[in-house]
Structure formats: structure tokens, C-alpha cells
């Protein structure tokens, strides 16, 4: 089963709250979370929602209610998590390229710290020694089917500490008496081959031998979700079975009981999100037919930024004859959402919906072209509720200081 909002609901929300509008489906998020819990029921697992995907405070509160923990990449996300009611022990702070003060701020708030830089590790050890536990973010340089080689966690990545620097890490841990309780890796996004995680796990098990106080191994995220009808999704059941098996074997061999952590972002919220826009103009040129909508990459940047594919449907003319369109936004720069896409005939005023809009949609929006950010609506128990007002003109001037 896969929960969805109906076209009727989406049209009614677009009429009530206006367009463009982001719509999130609470029960779909819960469904995804339950799938993970079920898949890993034979492991001692903990799931930290990687909230950079979508941080509306209501989404954070909902994650807390359904039993998720929280992964944060900035101190502000940590503070949002605390505001949403998460206990510090259920927050993991995984920043990259921040200064030592930001790490210390995380420590002062009592959250789990994930350190991904040798120099920070050393400073932390010098200052806090054994008094505050840390997790170390590693770059495992994984290659499918192989040993400690390069591919997914590519060698040029700015993230993590290379596993080839293990001796250096060990020296710091020993000389500063650091308390290392976790090892972490996060190698990328859209990983559909579960063996990548298992290989990562084997690398982590190997490295775990060097740390006596270890309590957990964190395999990060990168679970793939389907973007098109026939798209595969990471097989979490298969992964869950393999992880349980690997942990059981490890425990048998070493007598150590470790917890497994994951940090799903996209997996929890991508499919729960819809972005509804209105077709402003249909423009026939010599080469193509453009459907120009009342939005742009300032609201949904993934197609322009990552060449991401978002399925689009014309929800107000579902029986219209299918035609090929290039769907574009109103930003004064190349602003294409979709090339040569088959849609039911688009008429000016029709509502188009973008699917998979929950992750990295609103979150990456901006006011480019002095356009206003859209509203966000949460549907729970069939009831749509406004959870963010759309920007108004004054928001554009907020924080500006007129000195002329
Ligand atoms: C972005 C990120 C995630 C989430 O990745 P998804 O592909 O959205 O699941 C998890 N962990 C860390 C450290 C991240 O930076």
C-alpha cells in the first residue's frame, strides 16, 4: 500500500490556499517511517530524520510524534529540533566545515556530536578529553564489490575523515583520551544497491576494533525513492535482513552489541510532498510548446540544480488530450522544470502538480527575482492546515536598512 493525496484534495487545497503551494501528507511520512522500522525490526536500530530535507516546525513535531530522532547539519537545525520537543539525546549534530564554537554550542545543548575533521577532533579532545562522547564521521571510499577502494564516498569528498587516516585518529584519541562512542558514514544519495551499505558496514566493523567504547554504527542515508512509476526504491527489507545478519555475525565473533543508526531524509518526506502551481501561459514557438507556470526555480530548484526528474500532472484537465510540453517557470534566466513532457492538454489557469516535492523543495527556496516564497500546508487526518503563510511584499524588505 502507498498512501496518496487525491487530485480532488489537491485542487481543493489550491483553491483554498492559493498557488503555488507546497502540500505535505502526514500519514505518508508515517507510512515511510513504519516501513523502515519494520524492515529493521531484527536489529537494535535508531532512525534520525535528516531534517535539512524539510524543516517546517510542524514536520519536526510530527517526526517526534511518530518516534523518529533527528539529524541536524547546523546549530540552527539543532535549536529547531529542541524547539520541536526532541530530547538532546535524540538529536545528532553532523555539521561540516563549521568552526569549533558551533561544535561547542552543540555540546552545550547536550546533543550527540558527529565530528568530521581531524583538527576539530584534536581540539575537542584537548578541551574535553573523556568528558563528552563523540561520533567520528569517516569517508570509507567504497567501491561496489570490492575492498577499501574508491567510488561512492569519492576520494575528493569534503566530508568525513578518510579511513586511511585511521592511525592519525587513533593517535588523537589516545593522546587526548577522547571518548569515541560512534562511527559514521554517509556516502551519498539515491543508493539503490543495498550492498553499498553492507560494504560500508564491513568497513565500519573493521575500524570498530580500534575503539573500545563504541555503542553505535551510523550508516547515514542515501535511500532512493521512486520518482517515476517504474522507478526502483532502495529495498529496505533486503537491507534490514542483511544488516541484522551482519550484526548477529559480528556479535557472535566479538561479543560486542552495537546499535545501528540511519539518517533518512528523502526517504521519509519526498513522496509525502506535492507542489501545486498554476499554468499562467501556454506559448507555442517554432520549436516547442511551453507551459509557463506561476513559480520557478526559486521555489523548486532540483530540476535546474541536479537535473532532478519530478513527475508532473495536470490535475484540472485529466481527460484532456495528451500533448508534449516544456514546463518552465517565470524566473528571468533559463528556468526549466521539465523538457518534452507528455501532459493532458494544458490550458491557462490549469493546476499542475509536481510529485516528490517533500524533500529539498521548499527548503531550498529563495526570493530570487524578488518573488515571494510559497505557502506550506500539512494534511493530517484528511484536514489541510496552513503551516506557513506565503511571503508578503514586506518580507522582501525585512532586514534591509534604508540608508539612502
Ligand atoms: C543530507 C544528509 C542525509 C540525508 O540524505 P537523504 O538522501 O535525503 O536521505 C543524511 N545524513 C547526512 C549527514 C546528510 O548530510
TrEMBL record:
Cross-referenced CDD domains: PLPDE_III_DapDC (cd06828)
Q: Which PROSITE patterns match?
A: ODR_DC_2_1
Listed name of the protein: Diaminopimelate decarboxylase
Matching SUPFAM superfamilies, A to Z? Alanine racemase C-terminal domain-like, PLP-binding barrel
Q: Taxonomic lineage of this organism?
A: Bacteria, Pseudomonadati, Bacteroidota, Chitinophagia, Chitinophagales
Residues with the N6-(pyridoxal phosphate)lysine modification = 52
Per the entry, what this protein does is: Specifically catalyzes the decarboxylation of meso-diaminopimelate (meso-DAP) to L-lysine.
| A biological process term (GO) from this entry | lysine biosynthetic process via diaminopimelate
- Could you tell me which species this protein originates from? Segetibacter aerophilus
Amino acid at each position: 500500500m502507498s498512501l496518496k493525496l487525491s487530485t480532488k484534495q489537491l485542487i481543493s487545497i489550491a483553491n483554498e490556499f492559493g498557488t503555488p503551494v507546497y502540500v505535505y501528507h502526514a500519514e505518508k511520512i508515517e507510512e515511510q517511517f513504519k516501513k523502515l522500522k519494520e524492515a529493521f525490526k531484527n536489529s537494535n536500530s535508531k532512525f534520525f530524520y535528516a531534517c535539512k530535507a524539510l524543516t517546517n516546525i510542524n514536520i519536526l513535531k510530527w517526526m517526534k510524534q511518530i518516534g523518529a530522532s533527528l539529524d541536524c547539519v547546523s546549530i540552527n537545525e539543532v535549536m529547531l529540533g529542541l524547539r520541536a520537543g526532541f530530547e538532546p539525546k535524540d538529536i545528532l549534530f553532523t555539521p561540516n566545515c563549521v568552526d569549533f564554537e558551533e561544535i561547542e554550542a552543540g555540546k552545550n545543548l547536550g546533543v550527540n556530536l558527529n565530528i568530521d575533521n581531524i583538527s576539530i577532533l584534536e581540539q575537542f579532545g584537548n578541551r574535553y578529553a573523556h568528558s563528552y562522547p563523540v561520533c567520528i564521521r569517516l569517508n570509507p571510499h567504497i567501491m561496489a564489490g570490492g575492498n577499501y577502494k574508491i567510488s561512492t564516498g569519492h576520494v575528493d569528498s569534503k566530508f568525513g575523515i578518510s579511513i586511511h587516516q585511521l592511525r592519525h585518529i587513533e593517535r588523537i584519541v589516545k593522546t587526548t583520551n577522547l571518548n569515541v562512542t560512534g562511527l559514521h558514514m554517509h556516502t551519498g544519495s539515491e543508493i539503490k544497491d543495498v550492498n553499498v551499505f553492507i560494504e560500508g558496514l564491513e568497513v565500519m566493523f573493521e575500524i570498530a576494533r580500534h575503539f573500545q567504547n563504541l555503542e553505535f554504527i551510523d550508516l547515514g542515508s542515501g535511500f532512493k525513492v521512486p520518482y517515476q512509476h517504474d522507478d526502483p526504491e532502495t529495498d529496505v527489507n533486503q537491507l534490514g535482513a542483511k544488516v541484522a545478519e551482519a550484526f548477529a555475525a559480528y556479535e557472535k565473533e566479538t561479543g560486542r552489541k552495537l546499535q545501528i543508526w540511519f539518517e533518512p531524509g528523502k526517504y521519509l518526506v519526498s513522496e509525502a510532498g506535492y507542489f501545486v502551481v498554476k499554468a499562467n501561459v501556454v506559448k507555442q514557438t517554432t520549436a516547442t510548446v511551453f507551459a509557463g507556470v506561476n513559480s520557478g526555480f526559486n521555489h523548486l530548484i532540483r530540476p535546474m540544480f541536479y537535473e532532478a526528474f519530478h513527475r508532473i500532472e495536470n490535475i484540472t484537465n485529466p481527460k484532456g488530450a495528451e500533448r508534449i510540453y516544456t514546463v518552465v517557470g517565470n524566473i528571468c534566466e533559463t528556468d526549466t522544470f521539465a523538457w518534452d513532457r507528455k501532459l493532458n492538454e494544458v490550458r491557462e489557469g490549469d493546476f499542475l502538480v509536481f510529485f516528490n516535492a517533500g524533500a529539498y523543495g521548499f527548503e531550498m527556496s529563495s526570493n530570487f527575482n524578488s518573488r515571494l516564497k510559497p505557502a506550506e500546508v500539512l494534511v493530517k487526518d484528511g484536514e489541510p492546515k496552513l503551516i506557513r503563510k506565503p511571503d508578503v511584499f514586506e518580507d522582501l524588505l525585512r532586514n534591509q536598512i534604508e540608508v539612502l
